[in-house]
């Protein structure tokens, strides 16, 4: 949530470089944006309400500068106004800061500062940071003032600071991601790698309670708790810059849906020994607990069905934000599997840390190499899906499902068979995702564009996918959508069905099929318009979305047409599919 970016280097258009970088982070926040740059010993700044993508190079005349910081906001404290947009300043405007996260004790600090004569111009928690640094400056260097400030802040944050007469950028983090990009005599800092990938793929990750000071000589890292220097390992990111661009597609969402023509293959091309080692950890664990938020949480729920069926193994599942209330059952021999695209989601990360505190082992199934979960977990499996930039998770979802399916097979000593089946699924998906298929889904979107509600039903793994379908439809179409276990309808939700209520049924060709077809008859008898996602047509369907018969991977395959439906509904309803209202890609606040 919120994207932050900094540039320091020989190029003299630092503000424009910062804006270009921020545009690539827009999925993290798009309420308002701003940049601040050192301009002949002064700090020049520019702020705007709205999306940074609306800005074109040259819209504002920036003075030459070699150093700039910027921010794209997802509002937490204070409305969406220019005053609340970052950067924020001390009263003399000699210090500029941008901040991602929440300062939990800001109200108290603000009150203290106000009694000491500090004047606030925004409603944000972030402005507190600028004044607090200022309050320490008369008797301290900038570095010392920032260290003192950090020691007083509670909560989760990543901040960037510049000061008017110092040619350096200082960044610090606790909880929110910050990555330093190392170019040729030029340096970048960003919340996520795609922001500077066109300039460099050499990175250092800042860990919690660390600070970096970057001047023309390069970065110097410090541990804020011990006040000592820290050495960093240079990591090479193996994403191509082009993978972070839309290419021929109008939106990242459709690009990422289409990339599923090859991402399953990449996901299953894992090192056999590694997968087998992790499968042994699952087998030997005293309870395995899957944790994820949002879509990743639905994937975890799906995994409970996959492990039960494939490996005859019980694995537990908890929603990331609920885990703290459930953690009491974790033992030192437990295994936690955290599922996350970004590897940065605050609630999932907190669950990993809680599990580690209890001595449990942790496995992260993540897409972003080097992310906090990757670094903090005992084991990691990378999705290798390439950057996912649309807020709606699509290709990461199916890659996560593929990896969990693979692990379930590995637990039964059938890793090769699991790989073979998933590669078959990959070729089925590749065939399915053709322009005619998209047209068919578009025609359904035309029918549903004005409806009030859509219900999705499923059984077994398709129940988890019905919940995931609801998330996709909610976030992209803004239509009220809800997923149900099909068998639960008659225990309450059936009362919601009236004439022409759309009900989407996700169907597998297994023992659940007849039950769910019966449920379709029940809703149809009450007037529902039944949309079947199935490998075979059935008279009960008013509209049939054909999917390949994918056996154990049916849940993975069934979600893909719903992703397409959500995308086309979003377009028809004039929503921005990449940046749904009120949401942000990486939820690094609690
Ligand atoms: O990066 P993560 O996978 O941990 O993100 C978890 C959720 O925030 C994410 O899946 C969210 O629900 C998506 N917007 C769903 O499309």
Features:
seven-stranded antiparallel sheet; 3 domains; single chain; globular; Rossmann fold; alpha/beta; eight-stranded antiparallel sheet; Glutamine Phosphoribosylpyrophosphate, subunit 1, domain 1; 590 residues; 34% helix; binds 5-amino-5-deoxy-1-O-phosphono-D-mannitol
What does this protein structure show overall?
With 590 residues, this protein is an alpha/beta fold. It folds into 3 domains: 241 residues, Glutamine Phosphoribosylpyrophosphate, subunit 1, domain 1 (4-Layer Sandwich); 184 residues, Glucose-6-phosphate isomerase like protein, domain 1 (Rossmann fold, 3-Layer(aba) Sandwich); 147 residues, Glucose-6-phosphate isomerase like protein, domain 1 (Rossmann fold). The protein contains 16 helices and 25 strands. The strands form 4 sheets. It has an 8-stranded antiparallel sheet, covered by helices on one side. The longest helix is centred in the C-terminal third of the chain and has 19 residues. It is globular. Bound molecules: 5-amino-5-deoxy-1-O-phosphono-D-mannitol. 5-amino-5-deoxy-1-O-phosphono-D-mannitol binds next to helix 8 and helix 14.
Brief characterization of the structure:
This protein has 16 helices and 25 strands. By secondary structure, the chain is α/β, with parallel strands linked by helices.
Evaluate the radius of gyration. Answer: 25 Å
Listed once per kind, the bound small molecules are: 5-amino-5-deoxy-1-O-phosphono-D-mannitol
Q: Tell me the helix content.
A: 25-40%
CATH superfamily of the largest domain: Aminohydrolase, N-terminal nucleophile (Ntn) domain
CATH-derived topology of the largest domain: Glutamine Phosphoribosylpyrophosphate, subunit 1, domain 1
Report the biggest beta sheet as strand number plus sense, adding barrel if it closes: 8 strands, antiparallel
Low-confidence stretches: none
* Category by helix and strand content: alpha/beta
How many H/I helical runs? 16
Q: Provide the β-strand percentage band.
A: 15-25%
Average pLDDT figure: 94
- How many individual β-strands? 25
Strand order of the largest sheet: 3-2-4-1-10-9-11-15
At the first level of CATH, the class of the largest domain is Alpha Beta
Which term fits the overall shape? Answer: globular
CATH architectural label of the largest domain: 4-Layer Sandwich
Spatial separation of the terminal alpha carbons: 10 Å
- How many domains? The number is 3
